[in-house]
Design goal:
- Helix 1 (15-26) runs parallel beside helix 9 (314-330), helix 3 crosses helix 4 (81-92) and helix 3 (48-65) crosses helix 7.
- The chain has helices at residues 15-26, 42-46, 48-65, 81-92, 95-105, 157-160, 177-189, 208-220, 314-330, 358-363, 379-383, 412-425, 429-434, 446-449, and strands spanning 2-11, 31-35, 108-112, 115-119, 122-125, 128-137, 141-143, 169-173, 192-196, 224-226, 229-237, 240-247, 250-256, 258-261, 265-267, 281-282, 285-286, 300-302, 343-345, 351-355, 368-374, 390-396, 402-408.
- It is 31% helix and 27% strand.
- The protein is globular.
- It binds flavin-adenine dinucleotide (FAD).
- The site of flavin-adenine dinucleotide (FAD) has 35 residues, from helix 1, strand 2, helix 2, helix 3 and helix 9.
Length: 450
């Protein structure tokens, strides 16, 4: 086995790993990146980008549904699912090769294979052993394993983005982001969709009022939602799958062509031989300090979905990767700040949010003013025949700062960034109102939302 020396070894070539390479290469450090599948990782190959191609089709179907309001007659739309999957694959096909060229230009050596720790300062991939001054764990996440009998019958988002036939019926176990997003596309494409969530609320970390709005819209398009459910087992039945679950203490069954694990994702760190690297961890979570550095091995950093405490989102993976890169170059200096990170659930229409929920702001005992609006009868919502148009803006009374903003519909996935920007740079609610917006736009409604 060859023993090689390099300044930085990065495990994983997704958003987080790639972002590390910028600062460390600019500082002239030698870098090896080990990737077991496709360069680019989840977001461009199996996540955000291909999913958004399907969501865009869902959006088109939504617009067709609303055509009559604009006095347009259209026939029954027919979606060719196989062709849509082909289009999705076509959109993303060049990504790994483009990133390989970009890494080569940056003089990063990309090694194909599964990496494991060989020592606190070394990793092994195939028959190579790389000794490094710094090792970065950027190995992403994987679907949360569910302790349910028959869990092996479930598929994940990977299969949903690949199967060329639209299932007639699906049951999502877990009411997280992936279930809502794919559920909306499937339902609009004509599939029978049910979501079974264990907690009292879908999307448990999002603002309860916003979730109530998107649940109503989900049910309007035919999705059946049950919360407070305990799924007992999944078993084959008549060429389909049967889900046995308890709801309000009573056993129920439901059958579908596909059952999907929609219970979120967990850090993908359990096959890294962390003990060999002296990397402290428990229950699949690496222990890290505020600089994203291992608490037991100062040569090791973690970033992206592999971080157990931050939202699993692509821009956050990139942000953390950059912080790790700078901490490697300058010593542990930078700490991530997640307060103003915007996020969206790409249902059609989307649920978008930044900052605190109303419940979280109240729990913190902050004196808040809550501006909540159902905007369906506002001109912009009427113009675009919106089925749901809702906002909640939370303002800190003492400072007039924005603490949180939540939207369903009304271009919320775009507007949320204005509020994130305001939070990040201390722009007050009064200043946001003071701006003269182009009219008529959804943004021009911000004045009235406040
Ligand atoms: C269906 C889906 C839709 C999503 N949609 C959105 C969205 O709309 N917006 C958003 O912000 N986020 C979205 N996400 C989340 C987003 O994709 C992730 O937050 C982001 O990709 C995380 O980047 P990462 O670099 O941490 O991990 P990844 O991109 O997963 O990269 C980790 C890489 O490490 C590799 N690897 C793992 N173990 C090893 C090993 N031992 N050796 C070598 N290589 C290894 C993997 O092959 C992988 O390529 C979505 C995720 C999914 C699954």
């Amino acid at each position: 086995m060859g023993n090689e020396k390099v300044d930085v070894v990065i495990l994983g070539g997704g958003n987080a790993g790639i972002a590390v390479t910028g600062p460390v290469r600019r500082a002239g450090m030698s870098v090896a990146m080990i990737e077991s599948h496709d360069l680019g990782g989840t977001c461009p190959n199996r996540g955000c980008t291909p999913k958004k191609v399907l969501v865009a089709a869902g959006h088109a179907l939504h617009e067709i549904e609303r055509a009559a309001v604009h006095q347009i007659s259209v026939g029954q739309p027919k979606l060719d699912w196989a062709a849509l999957i082909d289009r999705e694959k076509h959109v993303i096909k060049d990504i790994p090769a483009n990133l390989a060229r970009s890494m080569a230009r940056r003089d990063v050596e990309v090694i194909k294979g599964h990496a494991i720790f060989a020592a606190p300062n070394a990793v092994r991939v195939g028959d190579r052993r790389l000794e490094a001054r710094h090792i970065v764990i950027a190995t992403g996440s994987k679907p949360r394993p569910l302790p349910i009998d028959g869990a092996e019958h479930m598929i994940t988002s990977d299969e949903m983005l690949t199967e060329r036939s639209l299932p007639r019926s699906v049951i999502f176990v877990g009411g997280g982001v992936i279930s809502l997003e794919f559920g909306h596309v499937y339902a609009r494409a004509g599939a029978d969709v049910a979501i079974l969530e264990g907690l009292p609320q879908l999307l448990p970390v999002m603002d309860a009022d916003a979730v109530a709005r998107i649940q109503i819209e989900s049910e309007r398009i035919g999705i059946r939602v049950k919360t407070d459910v305990r799924v007992e087992r999944i078993e084959p039945a008549n060429g389909r799958l049967r889900v046995v679950f308890f709801y309000k203490g009573v056993q129920h069954t439901a059958e579908a062509d596909r059952v999907i694990n929609g219970a979120g994702r967990v850090a993908n760190v359990d096959r890294l031989e962390l003990a060999a690297g002296n990397v402290e961890h428990a229950h699949g979570r690496v222990a890290i300090d505020r600089h994203l550095r291992s608490t037991s091995n100062p040569q090791v950093y973690v970033c992206g979905d592999a971080v157990p405490i931050s939202p699993q989102l692509s821009p956050i993976a990139t942000y953390e990767g950059d912080i790790v890169g700078r901490n490697i170059v300058e010593g542990p200096t930078y700490t991530p700040d997640y307060d103003s990170m915007a996020t969206s659930v790409y249902t059609v229409p989307a649920l978008a949010a930044v900052g605190l929920t109303e419940a979280a702001a109240n729990e913190k005992g902050l004196g808040i003013k809550v501006h909540c609006n159902d905007m369906r009868d506002w001109f912009s919502a009427q113009t675009y025949a919106e089925t749901v148009a809702w906002s909640k803006i939370i303002v800190h009374q003492a400072t007039d700062r924005i603490l949180g903003a939540h939207f369903v519909g009304h271009a919320g996935q775009e507007l949320v960034n204005i509020f994130g920007l305001a939070m990040r740079f201390g722009i007050t609610a009064g200043q946001i109102k003071d701006y003269v917006y182009a009219y008529p736009t959804f943004s021009s409604d911000i004045k009235h939302m406040l």
